[in-house]
């Protein structure tokens, strides 16, 4: 009984039949980690994106805040201001020039997604640099741009870390507790930062 969300989409999932008279249902809430982070942190820009109807694409929203750092390096002109608005980023993403559109897709799909998920899972700029295989200074610039867009996230992260140090645990979104280990109180910043 595998967790179907951990099995690659496509043909490989057909290797797990549901059984006689049964069906397999695979539910995937789009961006659930980001929605939960937005709610837990009470991050107004993210919450606004999720409350729109139709809902804004949060990866494109994130990309709008970092595109000015990446597009020049890709040799692609900015479509609009610097940093982009959400609408300006979308116009670049759907641009009639396929080279421009492809560069904007790289910003969204490679950089914005990895940056968003890396940061909400507690990655540092060094971790972002390693994951994206980019120089540390570039990763620091991207993280700073992300935190300029989502100002509440770093404040919330500090609040959670302080609370964990005081109480010895953090509460998960549905009330369960994750207890800290001794590394949280370590003088070694790498060890405590990982916690």
Structure write-up:
This protein is mainly α and 195 residues long. The protein has helices at residues 32-41, 44-51, 58-74, 86-93, 98-120, 125-132, 136-149, 152-167, 189-194; strands at residues 169-171, 177-179. It has a two-stranded antiparallel sheet. α1 (32-41) crosses α2 and α5 (98-120) crosses α6. The radius of gyration is 19 Å and the shape is globular. The protein starts with 31 loop residues before the first helix and ends with a helix. The model has no long low-confidence stretch (mean pLDDT 88).
Low-confidence stretches: none
Name the assembly state: single chain
Spatially, the strands of the biggest sheet line up as: 1-2
Q: Give, in order, the helices and strands.
A: HHHHHHHHEEH
Main sheet characteristics: 2 strands, antiparallel
Q: How far is the first residue's CA from the last residue's CA?
A: 31 Å
Q: Helix fraction?
A: 55-70%
Quote the beta fraction: under 5%
